[in-house]
């Protein structure tokens, strides 16, 4: 069963923010008074994997991993490896990562 937005469009693409942390302080992303979320408030990599899997089951075919800077998230490549199983099975068409590096 596909997900449909309020305008009747099929939702097939999601951006998943894996962290709010970044090694840069660009004004584009970070306001001067920004405070980071406590680490305990972030979803674990296992929770992110489960959530993404549910979205794939609902018709999402493309994911973009973002942040902050996703490469500052500890063990982020473990999540990429886990999600890549959906690429191999054909359930996911695209898995990309937006980075400043």
Strand order of the largest sheet: 3-4-5
Q: Judging from the principal axes of the Cα atoms, what is the shape?
A: globular
Bin the helical content: 25-40%
Q: According to CATH, what is the topology?
A: Transcription Regulator spoIIAA
Beta-strand content bin: 15-25%
Total E-strand runs: 5
Sheet bearing the most strands, described?
3 strands, parallel
Mean pLDDT over the residues? 91
- Output the structural class: alpha/beta
Question: Tell me, what is the CATH class?
Answer: Alpha Beta
The domain count comes to 1
Residue stretches low in confidence (pLDDT < 50, at least 5 long) are none
Gyration radius from CA atoms, angstroms: 15 Å
Distance between the termini: 37 Å
CATH architecture designation: 2-Layer Sandwich
Order of helices and strands: EEEHEHE
Counting DSSP H or I runs of 4 or more residues, the number of helices is 2
């Amino acid at each position: 069963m596909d997900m449909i937005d309020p305008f009747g469009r099929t939702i097939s693409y999601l951006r998943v923010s894996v962290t709010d942390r970044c090694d840069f302080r660009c004004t584009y992303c970070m306001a001067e008074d920004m405070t980071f979320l406590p680490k305990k408030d972030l979803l674990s990599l296992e929770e992110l994997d489960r959530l993404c899997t549910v979205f794939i089951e609902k018709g999402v075919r493309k994911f973009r991993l973002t942040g902050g800077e996703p490469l500052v998230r500890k063990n982020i490549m473990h999540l990429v490896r886990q999600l890549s199983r959906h690429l191999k099975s054909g359930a996911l068409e695209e898995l990309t990562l937006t980075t400043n590096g």
